[in-house]
Amino acid sequence: MDHEELLNEVKQSNELLRSQLLWTRIAAALLAVLLVAVIVCLGSTMNSLGRINAQMEQVDLAAVSRQIALLDVEGLSKAVSELDVTEFNNAIKNLNAAVQELQSASEAAKAWGDRVSEGLGGIFSK
User: Fold this and answer.
1) DSSP the chain
2) What span, in angstroms and rounded, lies between the C-alpha atoms of 76 and 82?
3) Can you tell me the distance from the alpha carbon of 52 to that of 108, in angstroms, rounded to the nearest whole number?
């Protein structure tokens, strides 16, 4: 190998090394940006966890426990299981019928009031 060829190979090697160094710097910069983003996200998450922790500390767990103990879950379950659905449906039907009767009575009273008002209006208009 003569001096010219060796010089060309060294130049090519230097160019490749420069290119490799450039891409290494770009990768390092991207990793730095990514690291900053992760740190910011972790900071935000830690802030949120701190607020949640502060709110959880304000919860009176003893009072919650007492209220849960007061619940009669078995009694409620028994009452629901003993509910007579047919009787309940009949009660709803009777209630609907009563509401319809009240509505009819209300309409009849309104019509009577309108007729009385018209009658009295006729007396006073003459």
Assistant:
1) --HHHHHHHHHHHHHHHHHHHHHHHHHHHHHHHHHHHHHHHHHHHHHHHHHHHHHHHHS-HHHHHHHHHH--HHHHHHHHHT--HHHHHHHHHHHHHHHHHHHHHHHHHHHHHHHHHHHHHHHHH-
2) 10
3) 61
pLDDT of the chain, 126 residues: tens digit per residue: 688 888 999 999 999 999 999 999 999 999 999 999 999 999 989 989 888 888 888 888 888 888 888 877 777 788 778 788 888 888 899 999 899 998 988 888 888 877 777 767 655 544
Residue with tokens 């060829």: 5
- CA dist., res. 74 & res. 80, Å (int): 10
